[in-house]
Every structure is written in C-alpha cells, then in structure tokens.
Amino acid sequence: MRKLSLLTLALLFPLLGVAAEPTDASLKALLEASGLPAAIGTLSTSSSQYAHQVIDQAIKGRDLTEQQKKNLDGLGDKFSAAVQQDMSYDKMSPLYMKIYRENFTQEEVDGLVAFFKTPAGVAYLKKMPQVMQKTSEASRNVMVPLMQKLQADISGVLEPKK
Predict the structure, then answer these.
(1) How far apart are CA 34 and CA 62, in angstroms?
(2) pLDDT of residue 75
C-alpha cells in the first residue's frame, strides 16, 4: 500500500504546481528572440559616444596641449574597447541566463519566446528603443522641476531667510 501511495505521489508531483527550471537551450532561445545580442552590440557604440561626452565635459573651458588632447581621445577609444570586450554578448549571456533562470519558469520562457516570434512581439522589440527614449525624456521633464524644488528646499534649510 505504501508503494502505491508513493507511486501516486510521484506521478502527481508534476501536477502540484512545481515550476520547471528553464533549460539552457530555452534561455538561449529567449535571449536571441528578445534581441539581446543586437542590444548588447549597440552598447559599444553608445559607450564610445558617452565616453567622448564625459571627456568633452571634463575639458570644457580648459586650454589643453595637443598631446593632452590626443591622450584624452585615446582614453575614449580605450574605454570603448574595454566595454566591447568586457560586456560582449559572449561574456554577458551567462549572467543574463542566470538572472532569467532565477526569475522565469520554463513555461514562461517558452511563452516569451513564442511571443517574440509573433508580429506583436516583433513590433514590441522594434519599437521599445523609441518608447524607452520617449519615456526617459518624459521622466526627465518631470524630474527637472522636482530637482529644482528640492534644491530650493535645501537652500531654504541651509540658508534660512531672516
């Protein structure tokens, strides 16, 4: 009798809601389907632009020698190369797979892969960069006045009116 109940439990265990952990193959399929390799590829381009912006901001208003300018320009390229190497898809995908594995079930991964292959999923991936940019701009438009108010409040505390 005990063997029968253990067998029954073993057969019913998968039906009790225990979620299966995603396989490596399905996680790789999700990363590919979600466009992550391309997104990481664009990171090196944007990191180069960002590095040059930081350098331009740091030297603004300074008189630099030609050698200093050359050395600083080299820093931007060096930073960009480091980002390209250290944050490549090959290096980052194990990290993403670990994070996805910790947060998604096999069923959810399968559903996401299927979604990203639909016209709606393709449209989502295509339009999300623009959506994120506009969201960032809208957030910035809200944050600027809030930050100005915070600065005024700080000034009011540090330099109270007499």
Answers:
(1) 44
(2) 85
- Token pair for residue 87? 């944050």
How many whole angstroms separate alpha carbon 75 and alpha carbon 146?
A: 35
pLDDT beneath 70: ranges in the chain: 1-18, 44
Closest C-alpha to 19, from 113, 103, 114: 103
Q: From CA 133, how far away is CA 116, in angstroms rounded?
A: 21
Token pair in block for residue 143: 């944050």
Whole-number pLDDT of residue 2: 58
Q: Where are the domains of the chain?
A: 21-117, 119-153
Tell the burial category of 22 from Cβ atoms under 10 Å away from its Cβ (0-12, 13-18, 19+): buried
Q: What is the secondary structure of 47-85 as a DSSP string? A: HHHHHHHHHHHHHTT----HHHHHHHHHHHHHHHHHHHH
Cα distance between residue 46 and residue 41, in whole Å: 9
How far apart CA 132 and CA 110 sit, in angstroms, is 25
pLDDT at 31: 95
